[in-house]
């Protein structure tokens, strides 16, 4: 039997798993226990040998922007600082959570993410049992940023921000000249109305002032501080 070269996407939403292939789509409600439910998601023999791309909804993750203290250089020092910050801010820690960074340098702030370890193991087992090659696991916000960043074009020295509104969740990341400044994920609800105040608070005391920024809005339109420009993007 020949091995498949097809790409499959597995997406974790707030209430269900979604599995999509070239000609098929399946949905499985997980009732709040996605790691236990995933084994029940069916797949055909045509999956074996294919590539599996996994996107986890931001409601299941924890995000941080890490600004490295002076003197932190080595890998073990970075891991220790990251673990400290996740315990301090989100109250999560290894081994129950798996921690990851978007870059392995200390000259720039890093976007860090914590994933429930049981959820990550369930994804790996799903791929193993079905003979799939796990091509990557990413969060919804990071996935949207990577797909949409070719459309980001704020002036040099200006703040840029991506606001992703999807499945009742709002995740916002702020950067300037390629360096992460802040990130927050919360239920969409009141977060949509409070986004302007969030941006103002993040940018207060920084140069340039909060009045100089471009918001790339995916999935929702927002009220912004004076001087901020909004660029609508397709729902991600």
Write the layout of secondary structure elements.
Blueprint (H helix, E strand, L loop, with lengths): L6 E6 L3 E5 L4 E5 L4 H4 L13 E6 L5 E5 L8 H16 L6 E5 L8 E7 H13 L3 E7 H9 L10 E8 L2 E8 L2 E9 H6 L1 H9 L9 E6 L9 E6 L3
Parallel strand pairs: 1-4, 4-8, 9-12, 12-13
Antiparallel strand pairs: 1-2, 2-3, 5-7, 6-7, 9-10, 10-11
Task: Describe the model.
By secondary structure, the protein is of the alpha/beta class. The chain is 24% helix and 35% strand. The chain is built from six helices and 13 strands. It has helices spanning 34-37, 75-90, 117-129, 140-148, 188-193, 195-203; strands at residues 7-12, 16-20, 25-29, 51-56, 62-66, 97-101, 110-116, 133-139, 159-166, 169-176, 179-187, 213-218, 228-233. A five-stranded mixed sheet has the order 3-2-1-4-8. Strand 1 and strand 2 (16-20) form a beta hairpin. The radius of gyration is 19 Å and the shape is globular.
Q: Structural class per helix/strand content?
A: alpha/beta
Write down the overall mean pLDDT: 89
Separate helix tally: 6
Low-confidence stretches: none
* Strand neighbour order, sheet with most strands: 3-2-1-4-8
How much of the sequence is in beta strands? 35-45%
Largest sheet: 5 strands, mixed
Number of strands: 13
